[in-house]
Amino acid sequence: MKKNFYKPFILVIIIASVLLLSNCDDNTDDPDYILNVVSLKEHFKDHFLIGNIMNPGSVASEKLKHHYNVLTAENDMKPDKINPNRGSYNFRTADNMVKTAIDSGFLVVGHTLLWHSQIPSWHRSVNSSNAKGYMETYIKDVVGHFKGKIYSWDVINEAFPDGGYNGDWKTSMRNENPWYSALGSDFVYYSFLAARQADSGAILYYNDYNLNMSSKAKMVHDMVRDVNIRYKNAYPGADRLLIEGIGMQGHHNTGVTAASIKASIDLFRQLGVRISISELDVLSQTWSEYSAQNALTETGKTKAAQLYGDYFKVFIANSDIIERVTFWGVNDSESWRSRAAPLIFSGDMAKSSYHKIIDSLK
Ligand code: 9MR
Question: Which comes out higher in pLDDT, residue 223 or 57?
Answer without folding.
Answer: 223
